[in-house]
Amino acid sequence: MRGVFLIIPYNLTMEKSRLEAFSDGVFAIVITLLILDIRFPEVEYSQFAATLTSVLPRILAYVMSFIIIGLYWVIHHSSMHVIKKTDRGFLWLNILLLLCVSFIPFPTSLLGRYPFQAGPIIIYGLTLIGCNAVGIAMVFYVYYHPHLAITEFSKQYLRSHTPNYIIINGAYLGAILLAHRFPLVSYLIYISVVVFLIVFLPKLDDGINYQGE
């Protein structure tokens, strides 16, 4: 029996509900995988304090990455408010974003195992830069495919979001460049970006209150 292949036009628009459901599932799995790297070995209670101290870097890396992935989910969820439909190009960009996000547990594990070492810090920063690069690519894709967005979407969305992507990626790049000589500063940069996003993200306009230009 010969197979039947359904050819779907590349620019065919589709409902966004399945994209949101799939993305939420991936985010939930990734954020759960982070905890699997934390294991407390079986030791005598006399060694409890020393062992707990040795596990702390993994716990701190877990907390930082948990919050970062949570922020990516919040941003992804908020961005869906301006999306009306989706097409195959946007779906692949979303897949690429999820690929980058799902990679975060790996550098997180490296940070926990080799704290204050340049290699893990660099891999971690490059992963976050990759996530952000795909994120801004998705914003530009929607801008150049206005039929995918609600009618209130406008250039203001780009104007309000692009500087934040530049500042955050610039900070991550700085952390990477400082990783060999000042690893502690690199950690502080990563933490500062998290605090910055938590404080200023609610104030960032979604761009849906402006009329298109």
Descriptive tags:
mainly alpha, 213 residues
Topology:
Layout: H1 17-33, H2 48-79, H3 88-103, H4 105-113, H5 118-144, H6 155-177, H7 183-200
Helix pairs in contact: 1-2, 1-3, 2-4, 2-7, 3-5, 4-5, 5-6, 6-7
- What's the overall average pLDDT, rounded? 87
What class, by secondary structure content? mainly alpha
Euclidean distance between termini CA atoms? 54 Å
Number of domains: 1
How large is the radius of gyration?
Answer: 20 Å
Low-confidence stretches: 206-213
Main sheet specs: none
Written description of the protein model:
The chain has 7 helices and no strands. The protein is mainly alpha-helical. The chain has one domain. The longest helix has 32 residues. The relative contact order is 0.13.
Summarize, please.
This protein is 67% helix and 0% strand.
